[in-house]
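Design review, sub-item: ligand-bound model
Attendees: FS, YL, KQ
YL presented the inputs for the calcium ion complex:
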Amino acid sequence: MPSLSSVLMEPSSTVCCCTTAGRTRTLPKRAHSCCPNKPESLADGSRSRSIHSRNPAMKTNSCICLFALVALFLTIDSAPLMAAPQSRPNILLIMVDDMGWSDIGCYGSEIETPNIDRLATEGLLFTQFYNNAKCTTTRASLLTGLYPRNGGRGQEDLITQKMLTLGEAMRHAGYATGMSGKWHNGEKVGDRPFDRGFDEAYGLWSGCCNFFNPRMPDPEFKGGKARIFGHNDTFFEIEDFPDDYYTTDAFTDHTIETIKTHAASGKPFFHYLPYTAPHYPLHAKPADIAKYKGKYAEGWDVLRQQRLAKQLKLGLVDKNWEVTNRDDLAKAWDEAKTIDEDWQQLRMEVYAAMIDSVDQNIGRILEVLNKLGIADNTLVLFLADNGGCAQTPGGTNPKQIPGPKEYYTHVGSGWATASNTPWRRYKQYCHEGGIATPLVARWPTAIKAGTRSEQVGHIIDFLPTFLDMANVDYPDQHPDFGTQTIPLDGKTLLPVFQGKVRQPHDNLYWHWSTNRAVRHGDWKLAWDKHAKAWELYDLQADRTEAHDLATEYPELVVSLIKKWESWAKMTDVKLEK
Ligand SMILES: [Ca+2]
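KQ shared the predicted structure:
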């Protein structure tokens, strides 16, 4: 397989014309003559691009349009509102999928994550950062600086033309923009990352996929559909993936090559890297799995205690908080292991291997930033899109073997309660186990190494933060669509990066399914779809949500319910009475 670098080295002297942004550009002839597929028209014809190419890591005999792509990077005029001074920082936003708060070393894990931990020791670790508890809605908020406005109903209208994506915002700010990984905010032409501000985009436009062949259809018990995977405006098929393909590696390869190209362009770059790991199905490489053989023999109840002990030592958890032995939706290990103890252990061994692989790949990227001499002025962020996942598509079935691509299984509620140490609940819930995410941020030019912040932040804060770093205002009108933009819900984190205290959010809100929550200062009101009642917690004294104070503060409960209902109306949440 050729690397993108080797492709870039190939000479090409012939040219043809491609139309981009309404203008004619000179591009290598191969960009057209070798491509059997005509580029599809975008919904907005004025923004259509006629370049399309496949990642060269996919197959050697496919059309290779990457030279053309690089030419585009070097020549494209994205009409920034201001020049891009060299001093403006690059930004690399890394997100993992369905990973618990305690699954990386700097938050209490035994999983080997030296590179992510290094981001913390050389940067800033947040103890109170939040996502939206779910893949789709987290991505929408992270990309737009807004709470979702579609009421949590699927992907339709999750990102509208009244919203800027991070790609559009940073392109508007004069940045080169790239993305490698899982989009999950629309698969159709007009909705994909390439259509919404990303100059160079490669990955999964759908939700979870097979890690060894992303086009391999899901098993029947998961619906049987094939996931949508692509590169810019090209869609991939099952034969486009070689035998040694693995998404975590491929997304990293694309990130590295795109960063190299963008760093050479003279512009600052923004790159978004949403890995699909460690979301189910449990797929990992044998060598990575072997590192964890036998490490989970004592089960998830012991693991939760081991991680809690490390968190207490690290000072991440208050010793006065009451921590449950396990979430009440999980079985005791001694009961669960009777199903097939080796299989139960292997689930967690593979899950750990998936995170280990992410860390190895982040190490590769950090090395490239060093070699390019841009590490000091590049902000690198790492977070998770939601908490550890207790879902079990296909049921608890030891015939589904964790690891190989032929099988489809999951960690289940037991290991997920260990992942979410010390919190309650999981992905899709608005208790802390669903919405609390690790966040580490390294930016040596601006962030003091080895620092920690207890200031509360949320993924809606990223877009205003990045525009603040780029010294560009959020526009009233969408630069591509001319529509009036929705005012931002998020606020800049730049003061926090600089070691200052920022004015906190008055309130933060969550909703998924019928789960819901609002946080006001240290007070949090949460609704659980099982309990079907509002619960009130003082997070300063009880962030593990062990002591419901709702009956002691009824007026406060009413006040917070009103706040949440007002927000739900604004975001079009419709709840059954
Ligand atoms: Ca997720």
